[in-house]
Amino acid sequence: MQLARTLAPGQVAFSEIDLNRENGVVDPTRTPTIRAITPVSTRNSAVPGAAVVINADYGAILQDMVSSMNIEVDTLIFNEEGDSLRYDPATGMSELLLAEEAPEYLKNFIADFADAPNEQIFQRDGVFYHASTDQTLVNNPGRSFTVLQTVPNELIYSEFASNFAENFAFAGLLMAIFLACATIAASRLTAPLRSVTSTLRTFPTGHDVDELNLPYDRNDEIGDMSVAFRDLMNELARERMQKQKFFQHAVDAFAMIDRNGIIQSVNPACEELFGYSEEELLGQNVKMLMPMPYSGEHDQYLANYQRTGKAKIIGIGRDVEATHKDGSTFPISLSISQFYQNGQVYYCGSMRDISNRKQMERMKDEFVSTVNHELRTPLTSIFGSLDLLRRMSEGKLDERCERLITLAHEGCSRLTNLVNDILDLEKIAAGKMEYHLQTLSAQELVEDVVRRHETLADRFGVRFLVQHFCEDQTVTVDANRFNQASVNLLSNAAKFSPDGGVVSIWTEANADKFIRICVRDEGPGIPDNFKTRIFEKFAQADGSNQRKTQGTGLGLNITKTIIEAFGGKIAFETEIDKGTTFYFDLPESAELDQPLQVAS
């Protein structure tokens, strides 16, 4: 195929002679073969899309030529590669040998004449030879072959001058006949190739391939090539039809523009999205679908991209505003890709109406604002009042009243935590979660968290056990966010541990200069079907209204986000009916900023 691309349309090149091969294996007949190759391209493409290769029996071609000549002396014809044809006029037999098949004596004999002048008489072992070399071979300039004939001694000695002239003329005639025969053979090979090439080049684009007038019924390589080409074109047509169906039936809107922004094609979804018909869109600048100021900037942006290659949206995608035929604007998600066709650059835009998504985002923002201003503020007051009431009434109320105050206090606490978790999720989603990083002692951080939340152990009837299995190391964290992440793990461990159980918290050294902080419970373990979802938002192993442990299912998701913001990672190990260990690794830091202010 590489050789075909170097040839002009209609030009034919010939290969060196070697044994015929099928699928890389020498044919059992060991037929010396010469190959002709010519490029095949369509009318609209200067670049060959395929090549036709014809194999010909080289020995048969040469033997036909030699048998048609009136040769009276032993003759040897060989080329520069060492392939040779020997003809014996006594028997009328000729023998073709490739260079690798020739016996050693023949190779040496040919080598003696390899560098001989174009016309010369030699004597070897008492025998005279006339050698004539020609530097022209059909369609392959630069290739040479030599005709070597024996000359009887009596002719040399008796009529040397006369016979030399006759033999010279005879050699020239032989070479002329040889070239004529080679030309005829090449013409027989290339004529059908030129016909097929001409048919393909003039075939109109988009027509049914069955209309091609190719020689499908030939029982040779030309026929095989024609059938293979027809099958290839049918397969390409099927693929093109599938792509066209996808384009026409896609839910998303698609529009293709050229390098100047002119719309070349659209699908029905694009017509429905913008309210225009296909006829109204084709040939128009795509900026008609954009509101100001984007429509005024589009042409300049496209020109700048083609000049500099700096993309603001091509290959990236973004949410933009679009203009409907009725003049209204609406938000769309736009993705643009670039491709080339027939050497020209085109751009394909995929568009989807995201009005509903934007409406949901506005509703979410309004909800978060409501939660922040209308719920959290009064909840804080209620929680503070209940906490004060519980302390002031301790020992002064009957058991029923104390239980009601406790239930109200705990319920208000859970609701406050839920509101705070929802607000934290919104901050995380918006990228507004703030971290005030400090380099602090890891062991002091852990001990401070446990000390601050001993009430968790009392509430759930468990005991916290803190241990350190490594030297103290420093980590860079936000102390408040570290406390939030750790408390989520402590709270879960306490909730899932049995009464009287032990929740173990420890630190240990990990590879690659990380320190690991672990929290282990003695609970029931995590079911296999829940392991992959455990860090998702609102994920809970027991989603029923009667679940034994209370929670929102947001804590682990927030904890994972916080730990990753510190450059760490979180994971867990669990065994059914034996317990679960959550742990997170934090990178060690070089220096301590200041001692941690421990809670009293």
Overview features:
600 residues, Beta-Lactamase, 24% strand, alpha+beta
Can you offer a commentary on this structure?
This protein is α+β, with helices and mostly antiparallel strands and 600 residues long. It is 41% helix and 24% strand. It folds into four domains: 1-202, no CATH class; 250-353, PAS domain (Beta-Lactamase); 358-430; 438-587, Heat Shock Protein 90, CATH 3.30.565.10. The protein is built from 15 helices and 24 strands. The strands form six sheets. It has a six-stranded antiparallel sheet. A five-stranded antiparallel sheet has the order 14-13-17-16-15. Helix 10 (355-392) runs antiparallel to helix 11 (399-430) and helix 12 crosses helix 14 (479-496). The longest helix is centred in the first third of the chain and has 43 residues, at 160-202. The two termini are 83 Å apart. Residues 543-548 have low confidence and may be disordered.
- Helix % is 40-55%
Uncertain regions: pLDDT < 50 for 5+ in a row?
543-548
Give the structural class. alpha+beta
Rg = 45 Å
How does the overall form come out from the CA principal axes?
elongated
User: Number of folding domains?
Assistant: 4
Mean pLDDT: 78
Largest beta-sheet characterization: 6 strands, antiparallel
Spatial order of strands in the largest sheet:
9-8-7-12-11-10
- List how many beta strands DSSP finds: 24
Strand percentage: 15-25%
Distance between the termini: 83 Å
Q: Count of helical segments?
A: 15
Give the topology, please.
Layout: H1 2-5, E1 13-14, E2 18-19, E3 21-22, E4 25-26, E5 32-40, E6 50-57, H2 58-67, E7 75-79, E8 84-88, E9 93-97, H3 104-113, E10 119-124, E11 127-134, E12 145-151, H4 153-158, H5 160-202, H6 221-249, E13 253-258, E14 263-266, H7 268-274, H8 278-281, H9 294-308, E15 318-323, E16 329-341, E17 344-353, H10 355-392, H11 399-430, E18 438-441, H12 442-452, H13 454-460, E19 463-468, E20 474-477, H14 479-496, E21 502-510, E22 514-520, H15 555-565, E23 569-575, E24 579-587
Parallel strand pairs: 19-21
Antiparallel strand pairs: 1-5, 2-5, 3-4, 5-6, 7-8, 7-12, 8-9, 10-11, 11-12, 13-14, 13-17, 15-16, 16-17, 18-20, 21-22, 22-24, 23-24
